[in-house]
């Protein structure tokens, strides 16, 4: 990928040097109108790599536009007109913020403007979303909150229906303890690492390859950890099967449609996602209200 | 001075069947001579054929008065004898003023809201809330109105001078004295056993505690308790030992010769009687027998203007002793006093009943005591789980400060304050109860409601949390009762779990009760009387 470094870019612009006089020629004693000031509309811009960003303003009739960048990420001048300067952002492997010094030479005047550019790595944006969701869902994933909510519901349902007593309920609830699993600490380590890598990536200290590697590590740890939740649900099948046919051993995966990690919305075994909402298959309708389908949704409430 | 009795012993000289050398007792009483009754308690394991069997394992001897002291001395020296005491002549505390019949006036317009509608209620000053002027009153009405009075309680009146009147509905009664013309038997109305007597003391005492309220007659009793009459005096005087026997009978002692057992023990016993003597062992043991069974024993302090320490049973342990005040809160002149007196109530111009059940003002600690006994009854109704000591503590601890330090009759009994304290305690005895689907504990409500089993409405369920209410893990269970259409209480839940789901009860519509009971839902701590 591209190397960073300071590079001076220049573009000789074919310039029409037509001067526009006020009141016609002759009469040399008349004062020429002052040239329009060179103005930039933006001081901060952002754009995706492999794309073009435009700076607007009034640039007179530039004879020359020079760009320097710190760090040099290979931004280049694509085109210039009196009111628009277009810059090409090269292919990047990470988001980079660079400071552009843009010098416009027009009408015998030279004006330099500093613009801060955030150049995003568009190829890795899905990875970033995935990583962010994993981190944001981190405690929920560690606690297997989705499975826990289902587990708690089925036990509590049996209690409400007077199939089990409160003490039996409490005893069964205590058996759902993902923190006691080795996979819990593995995932915890993975999430910590991912968080660190994501921060590095966002500060351009790590590239997309490292980010993806960290995500793969976390995905694997989530998958390993998710086995426990299914096991616990299987262990109370006498209560779950009152309402649903049973639960299959499916990995918790990232569902791009909803932007969450879930074993239930991904795929079509339990249902489908329609208009960004989980819609259960008929057999699983009883648990539809308990399936998380947005990141901010909490399934946890205090059941005494 | 011991009153001459008709008792005789059938054996002239007797011996005690022990390993001791045979000894000779004093002669039995000669019927023609004044005699004394001596109560003897032998040590455990001692069998004797001597004397008549008395309650509490005592033996009773009648001896000529002239032999009395020597007889007692001899017995005290016997190794097999645990205790000896003379029976003591007792009476109602002497009346400081004769009772006064009060004409009924139409006082309805002066009566507080929700007060009993009895025409003489306006005269029952002790029901009033205290004011700056009238500090001696007991604020009964507020307690009466605030107390759930569904629990059946029984209050025993040990007295004499009971007369039949529609104001007093006796659930049972018995004559426990054979002094004078009396014979032990079921006739306890004074006119049946002592026709010449004209002292309706028992009616005066009982009316304060339990005159039928809202019947258009005379006054309202403080409680709706079942009344039990124990006639232990002959007209106006009698024997302290008979009074002790009465206590035992009312407390459920089934081993009293010639007396059928009471159908159920009482909850409170009122003793408006006494004698100037130390507390004899037989009286103390009878009182302890009652208090051990949760029965509050209330006694009048006496009207001799002496230290009540000299007046029995007021001076016995485990008795709530009541002194008298006037309505202003000043100690009544006649009232006995001293540290033996636990609490005071109105004993001057106390509105109650006479032999005809008509409104009458009475004077004496005899009538202060039943006010306090009535408060004790209300407390027992509010919380049947309380022991006698706890009830007494509530009454004493919540009494208002006496008007002056030299009053020496204790604080001023305040029913409203006492019941308020009991209520606060009861609140702590109630479980927490909440709708099962309350949005906090089960936030995913839709998951529950869309999956309700047939015939079950989760929204109608409650979750009961009795975690703060301790129980005996082996023998006690949490129970919920519901009053059915017929008014009886049906057990709807019985569980060892401190937290449980309650169905079949609509707390908006049904009367429901919490309790801690045995495995059959019986023998409940609060007698199925703690409302949810």
Name a few traits of the molecule.
heterodimer, A: 304 residues, alpha+beta, Immunoglobulin-like, 2 domains, 7 helices, disordered N terminus, B: 532 residues, alpha/beta, Rossmann fold, 3 domains, 8-stranded parallel sheet, 4-stranded antiparallel sheet, 10 helices, 19% helix, 22% strand, globular
What does the model show?
The complex is a heterodimer of chains A (304) and B (532). Chain A folds into two domains: 9-16 and 30-120, Immunoglobulin-like (Sandwich), CATH 2.60.40; 124-290, no CATH class. In chain A, the strands form four sheets. Chain A has a five-stranded mixed beta sheet, with no helix packed on it. The model of chain A is unreliable at 1-29 (pLDDT under 50). Chain A is α+β, with helices and mostly antiparallel strands. Chain A is built from seven helices and 13 strands. In chain A, α3 (145-160) packs antiparallel against α4 (166-174), α3 runs parallel beside α6 (208-235) and α5 runs antiparallel to α6 (208-235). Chain A is elongated, with a radius of gyration of 30 Å. Chain B is an alpha/beta fold and 532 residues long. Chain B folds into three domains: 1-87, no CATH class; 100-426, Peptidase S8/S53 domain (Rossmann fold), CATH 3.40.50.200; 430-531, Sandwich (Immunoglobulin-like), CATH 2.60.40. Chain B has an eight-stranded parallel beta sheet with strand order 8-9-7-12-14-16-17-20, with helices on both faces. In chain B, β23 (477-483) and β24 form a beta hairpin. In chain B, α2 (140-146) runs parallel beside α9. Mean pLDDT of chain B is 88; it is low at 1-27. Classes of the chains: A alpha+beta (304), B alpha/beta (532). The interface between A and B is medium-sized, with 23 and 24 residues.
């Amino acid at each position: 990928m591209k190397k960073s470094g300071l590079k001076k870019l220049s573009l000789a612009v074919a310039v029409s040097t037509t001067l526009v006089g006020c009141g016609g020629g002759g009469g040399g004693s008349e004062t020429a109108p002052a040239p329009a000031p060179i103005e930039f509309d933006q001081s901060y811009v952002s754009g995706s790599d492999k794309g073009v960003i435009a700076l607007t303003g009034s640039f007179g009739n530039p004879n020359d536009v020079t760009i320097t960048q710190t760090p040099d990420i290979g931004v280049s001048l694509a085109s210039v007109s009196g009111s628009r300067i277009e810059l090409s952002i090269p292919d990047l492997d990470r988001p980079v913020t660079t400071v552009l010094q843009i010098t416009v030479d027009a009408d015998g005047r030279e004006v330099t403007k500093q613009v801060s550019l955030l150049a995003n790595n568009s190829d890795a944006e899905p990875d970033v979303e995935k990583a962010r969701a994993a981190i944001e869902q981190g405690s929920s994933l560690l606690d297997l909150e989705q499975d826990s909510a289902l587990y708690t519901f089925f036990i509590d349902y049996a209690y409400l229906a007077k199939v089990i007593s409160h003490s039996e309920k409490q005893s069964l609830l205590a058996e759902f303890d993902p923190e006691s699993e080795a996979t819990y600490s593995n995932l915890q380590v993975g999430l910590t690492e991912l968080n660190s890598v994501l921060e590095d990536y966002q500060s351009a200290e790590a590239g997309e390859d490292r980010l993806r590697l960290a995500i793969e590590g976390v995905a694997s740890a989530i998958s390993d950890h998710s086995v426990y939740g299914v096991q616990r649900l299987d262990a109370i099948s006498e209560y779950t099967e009152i309402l649903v046919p049973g639960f299959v051993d499916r990995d918790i995966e990232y569902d791009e449609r909803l932007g969450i990690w879930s074993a239930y919305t991904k795929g079509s075994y339990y249902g489908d996602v329609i208009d960004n909402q989980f819609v259960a298959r008929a057999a699983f309708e009883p648990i539809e209200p308990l399936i998380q389908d947005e990141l901010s949704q909490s399934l946890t409430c205090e059941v005494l | 001075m011991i009153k001459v009795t008709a008792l005789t012993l059938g054996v002239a000289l007797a011996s005690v069947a022990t390993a001791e050398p045979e000894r000779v007792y004093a002669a039995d009483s000669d019927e023609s001579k004044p005699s004394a009754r001596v109560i003897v308690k032998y040590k455990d394991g001692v069998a004797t054929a001597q004397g008549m069997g008395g309650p509490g394992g005592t033996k009773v001897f009648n001896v000529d008065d002239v032999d009395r002291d020597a007889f007692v001395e001899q017995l005290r020296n016997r190794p097999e004898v645990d205790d000896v005491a003379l029976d003591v002549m007792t009476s109602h505390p002497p009346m400081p003023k004769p009772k006064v019949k009060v004409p009924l006036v139409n006082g309805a317009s002066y009566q507080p809201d929700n007060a009993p509608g009895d025409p003489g209620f306006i005269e029952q000053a002790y029901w009033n809330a205290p004011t700056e002027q009238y500090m001696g009153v007991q604020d009964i009405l507020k307690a009466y109105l605030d107390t759930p009075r569904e629990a059946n309680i029984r209050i025993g009146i040990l007295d004499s001078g009971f007369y039949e009147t529609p104001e007093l509905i006796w659930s049972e009664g018995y004559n426990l004295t054979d002094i004078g013309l009396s014979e032990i038997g079921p006739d306890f109305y004074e006119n049946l056993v002592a026709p010449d007597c004209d002292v309706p003391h028992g009616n005066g005492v009982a009316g304060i505690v339990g005159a039928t309220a809202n019947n258009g007659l005379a006054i309202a009793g403080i409680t709706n308790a079942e009344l039990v009459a124990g006639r232990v005096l002959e007209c106006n005087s009698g024997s302290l030992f008979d009074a002790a026997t009465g206590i035992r009978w009312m407390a459920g002692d089934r081993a009293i010769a010639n007396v059928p057992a009471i159908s159920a023990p009482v909850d409170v016993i009122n003793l408006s009687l006494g004698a100037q003597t130390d507390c004899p062992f037989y009286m103390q043991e009878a009182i302890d027998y009652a208090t051990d069974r949760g029965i509050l024993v209330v006694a009048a302090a006496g009207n001799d203007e002496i230290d009540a320490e000299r007046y029995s049973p007021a001076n016995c342990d485990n008795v709530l002793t009541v002194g008298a005040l006037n309505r202003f809160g000043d100690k009544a002149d006649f009232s006995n006093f001293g540290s033996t007196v636990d609490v005071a109530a109105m004993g001057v111009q106390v509105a109650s009943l006479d032999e005809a059940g008509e409104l009458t003002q009475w004077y004496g600690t005899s009538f202060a005591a039943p006010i306090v006994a009535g408060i004790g009854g209300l407390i027992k109704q509010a919380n049947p789980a309380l022991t006698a000591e706890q009830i007494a503590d509530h009454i004493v601890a919540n009494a208002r400060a006496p008007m002056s330090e030299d009053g020496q009759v204790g604080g001023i009994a305040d029913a409203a304050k006492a019941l308020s304290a009991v209520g606060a305690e009861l609140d702590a005895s109630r479980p927490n109860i909440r709708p099962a689907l309350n949005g906090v504990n089960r936030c995913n409500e839709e998951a529950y409601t869309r999956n309700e089993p047939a015939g079950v409405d989760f929204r109608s369920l409650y979750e009961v949390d009795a975690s703060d209410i301790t129980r005996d893990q082996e023998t006690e269970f949490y129970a919920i009762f519901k009053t059915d259409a017929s008014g009886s209480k049906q057990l709807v839940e019985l569980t060892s779990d401190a937290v449980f789901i309650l169905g079949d009860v609509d707390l908006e519509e049904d009367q429901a009760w919490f309790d801690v009971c045995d495995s059959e839902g019986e023998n409940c701590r609060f007698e199925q009387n703690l409302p949810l």
